[in-house]
Amino acid sequence: MARLYVLANVATAWCLALVLLAAFAAQFLSGEPPCPLCLMQRIAMMMAALGPLSVLVASARGALSSREIAVGASIAILASLLGACIATRQVLLHILPGDPGFGAPMLGYHLYTWCLVVFVCTILAAALQLCGLTWFQGQAQGAPAIARVTALLLGLVIVGNILSVIAEAGFAWHLPDNPTRYLLF
């Protein structure tokens, strides 16, 4: 049962990391710096990723317990609720017919729409983990290699996003609504 929780958190972490990497691709390959709402969604997604990351770290230590899973799922749910509110706000800003939205669409939808979908799926995944805690038997085990690789990838993506936000914001307290350049450089 513990391995199932590890794999569920690996899948959640990979989904969050892939969306953050897609945001990186849009930012650097397409030359589209994120708007302030996009930055807040990224921050919320990084906070949501800390939930699965905490479960993976606990599993690597061999101390995976129902408490660790509950804390990780709670972190993911709270951060995803915040992110879903921010993403919903941005979707509603661009909901009128004829509004081109912010940034280029990826696979038919804008990144903020994908973020909303990912936040809702993260909430559902974490809620399912909490529902399954009744059947969890706390078994101490080491994390499989994929859990360690996932934790490393997620850590690198989080650090990269933090550096990207610092590069865009510089030392300013106010970002323009439609950024066109990096304020640090």
Describe the structure.
The protein is mainly alpha-helical. It has one domain (2-169). Helices cover 69% and strands 0% of the residues. The chain is built from five helices and no strands. It is globular, with a radius of gyration of 17 Å. The model has no long low-confidence stretch (mean pLDDT 85). The chain crosses the membrane at residues 41-58, 70-91, 111-137, 149-175.
Question: Any chance you could write out the topology, listing elements then pairs?
Answer:
Elements: H1 2-28, H2 36-61, H3 66-93, H4 111-131, H5 145-169
Helix pairs in contact: 1-2, 1-4, 1-5, 2-3, 2-4, 2-5, 3-4
Q: Residue share in helices? A: 55-70%
Largest pleated sheet: none
What's the order of the H and E elements?
A: HHHHH
How many DSSP H or I helices? 5
Q: Radius of gyration, Cα only, in angstroms?
A: 17 Å
Task: Extract low-pLDDT stretches.
Answer: none
The tally of structural domains comes to 1
- SSE class: mainly alpha
Shape: globular
Summarize the structure.
The protein is mainly alpha-helical. Helices cover 69% and strands 0% of the residues. It is found in: Membrane.
Task: Describe the structure using short key phrases.
185 residues; globular; 0% strand; 5 helices
